[in-house]
Write a structure and sequence with these properties.
The structure holds two protein chains of two kinds.
Chain A lengths: L23 E12 L2 E12 L3 E5 L6 H9 L6 E6 L2 E2 L5 H5 L3 E4 L11 H9 L6 H11 L15 H13 L5 E5 L7 H16 L3 E5 L3 H7 L2 E6 L2 E7 H6 L1 H6 L6
Parallel strand pairs in A: 3-8, 3-9, 6-7, 7-8
Antiparallel strand pairs in A: 1-2, 1-4, 4-5, 9-10
Chain B lengths: L8 H9 L9 H20 L2 H25 L8 H18 L3 H28 L5 H19 L7 E2 L2 E2 L6 E2 L4 E3 L1 E3 L1 H23 L2 H11 L1 H5 L5 H27 L1 E2 L6 H14 L4 H18 L11 H15 L4 H17 L14
Classes of the chains: A alpha/beta, B mainly alpha.
């Protein structure tokens, strides 16, 4: 468990950049993204430690998705760097970044609708040198879709598709999973299933960075929370601290509380 | 969950040939396949030499169909210009073969032509896929390449347009192209068997490739490029490899075509010829190599039949009828004939065994 970081201490020297000295597995340094005149992500220094679940929250337009896209490489940074597990990702293509041990699940379900659940899982799995039969059976079990193994993914419910998505991402056996709103549009039961799934993977040592709106869900899975506001890190700390922070409540939680 | 292959070599070979990416994974299918190949092998013995010769031309064209089926049906890249690589290889085969008029020269021409056609596809593919050209723009660009070649080759009538002793010949085309030679010269019935053998071998080879991990990647790229990239796949590279292989297959067809008639002209780059592979594959089935081959043979047989006209129907109606057939198939069987028949067969089997579709085991897919 890392110590809560004060907002004022965020301009740390880039020690973690090399992956030595701290337990940070992902670190951004002065990361900035401009869209024309708009600065969507503004000088962000931000870390995810090994084996932790960190939630990224913030009001709409805070730059959460942009930050995620800068990490995965869907967008290229205007300034600053992204380090992962000792590697500088900044100049790598999206597919090269995945090979360093990242895995990502985007917001909208993006399964191969015409292919069976089994084949959906095989596509990422065949890139690894893991035992296909064993991991396939394990993963189907884990995401509770063993019954639906031969069903076309397009025929699954929304919640099942989201679980399948997570299943596809974890077959790569990543060190860090990036999840963008994994429970958007889900029922209470489905949300609980996903939370349980994330916790069980976390128990196995997988780190998570979760972009999320649903504070209930954040409370359920998260240890550490980073609040973004207007493209910059506004607060970081354990969930209990963030939730009781007056300034955070004003910009974000106030609307819901 | 996993099917154990306890059998001998037959099971192992079938394991490689079969999988969820190809239709026809049953013993019945393979018996039918062997019977069909045997029938085609016996065909020259029972028909007249002219018909056998025409049929061998259909085999050459079928290479265009499987090349398009491979890149479009399995990787989602709709190329309207497979004929470009076909034509480039045909002209290259002629150029090398005419300049080095010997058995060795003609054999070298075969390899040289396939290499040049494949390289042309690799270069075009590199600029398209690494340049971010996608979807319908690939279709337009490949067609434009074919049409540019059509126009260019059309104005090469002058005697200054020659490579060595090989005259390009403008609209009249290149003549005196040698016969297919691979150590020995293949003519008439020999040519028929050579092309049939190449076609069967290519079909089986593509089945192995499509049911491998690479085939799975191709299908994943076809279904969703972005998603596939998020698993770490280099989508541009996958498409380049597929497009290059497709170009190589089209090039091989072009060599057969040029050596069949000892002749090639710029009409191989024309829009009417460029459209034919799309028609064959659409009708036969984008996701069925065999469907695409079968549709090529039948449609070309029909076009030959119509070329002298039937009753009041003149030869000029042949393409109109093919077009009508295409519209009908697209309207009633959007996936093409072979996949539709396969679905019908599956539906019948399920009803007979009283099983629901979802409980149908697809054990092979575990391989």
């Amino acid at each position: 468990m890392s110590t809560p970081q004060d907002i004022n201490a965020r301009q740390k020297p880039a020690v973690a950049a090399t992956g030595s000295g701290t337990s940070a597995i992902l670190a951004t340094r002065q990361l900035t993204k401009n869209f024309g005149g708009l600065t969507a992500v503004d000088d962000v220094d931000f870390e995810v430690n090994e084996g932790e679940i960190r939630c990224l929250i913030g009001p709409n337009g805070a730059g959460k998705s942009t930050l995620l896209n800068l990490i995965t490489g869907q967008l290229s940074a205007s300034e600053g760097e992204v380090y992962f597990d000792g590697t500088d990702l900044t100049d790598l293509d999206p597919h090269e970044r995945i090979d360093t041990g990242l895995s990502v699940k985007f917001q909208s379900p993006h399964v191969y609708e015409n292919l069976s659940v089994r084949r959906n899982l095989q596509v990422p799995l065949q890139r690894t040198d893991r035992d296909v039969d064993r991991v396939l059976a394990e993963t189907l079990d884990r995401i509770s879709l063993a019954e639906q193994a031969d069903t076309p993914a397009g025929d699954l419910s929304h919640g099942q598709q989201q679980r399948l998505e997570i299943g596809m991402a974890i077959t790569l056996d990543p060190k860090l999973m990036l999840l963008d709103e994994p429970v958007a549009g889900m029922s209470v039961d489905e949300t609980a299933d996903v939370a349980a799934l994330i916790r069980s993977l976390h128990d196995d040592g997988m780190a998570f960075l979760v972009v999320e709106h649903d504070m209930e869900f954040v409370r359920e899975i998260s240890e550490q929370v980073t609040v973004l506001n207007q493209g910059a890190v506004f607060r970081q700390g354990p969930i209990e601290e963030i939730e009781t922070d007056e300034a955070v409540r004003r910009i974000y939680l106030g609307a819901e509380a | 969950m996993s099917s154990e292959n306890t059998g001998g070599i037959v099971d192992r070979v079938r394991g490689r040939l079969e999988g969820p990416n190809t239709l026809g994974n049953s013993s019945t299918f393979w018996i039918g396949f062997v019977v069909a190949v045997a029938a085609l092998a016996a065909y020259p013995q029972v028909t007249d030499p002219y018909t056998a010769l025409q049929t061998s031309r259909y085999f050459a064209l079928a290479f265009l169909a499987i090349s398009l089926c491979f890149v479009w049906g399995y990787c989602g890249v709709l190329s309207f210009g497979q004929v470009a690589f076909f034509g480039i290889a045909a002209y290259t085969f002629g150029t090398i073969g005419i300049n080095f008029a010997s058995t060795a020269g003609a054999t070298a021409a075969l390899f040289g032509a396939v290499t040049v056609g494949t390289l042309a596809a690799a270069i075009l593919g590199y600029f398209m896929f690494y340049g971010g050209v996608r979807d319908v723009y690939v279709t337009i660009m490949t067609l434009v390449v074919a049409l540019v070649l059509n126009t260019f080759m059309g104005q090469t009538a002058g005697s200054e347009w020659a490579i060595g002793t090989a005259r390009l010949g403008g609209f009249n085309g290149m003549t005196n192209i040698p016969n297919l030679t691979f150590g020995i010269v293949f003519q008439t019935v020999g040519f028929y068997y050579a092309v049939l053998f190449a076609l069967v071998a290519t079909y089986l080879g593509l089945r192995v490739l499509l049911n491998s991990a690479f085939g799975m990647t191709m299908v994943a790229v076809r279904e969703d490029e972005e998603r596939t990239a998020t698993f770490g796949y280099n989508v541009a590279f996958v498409k380049l490899v597929v497009f290059t292989i497709g170009g190589g297959l089209a090039a091989l067809g072009g060599v057969f075509y040029a050596s069949w008639g000892n002749y090639v002209d710029p009409s191989v780059f024309s829009i009417a010829f460029a459209a034919l592979p799309v028609v064959w594959v659409s009708i036969g089935g984008r996701e069925s190599l065999l469907g695409a081959i079968g549709a090529t043979l039948l449609i070309e047989r029909m076009r030959t039949g119509l070329s002298s006209g039937i009753g009041p129907i003149g030869p000029e109606w042949a393409l109109v009828i093919v077009g009508g057939l295409l519209l009908g198939v697209i309207l009633f069987m959007p996936a093409g004939i072979a996949p539709t028949l396969n679905d019908l067969k599956d539906g019948l089997l399920e009803r007979r065994s009283g099983r629901s579709p979802s409980s149908t085991p697809t054990e092979e897919s575990v391989e």
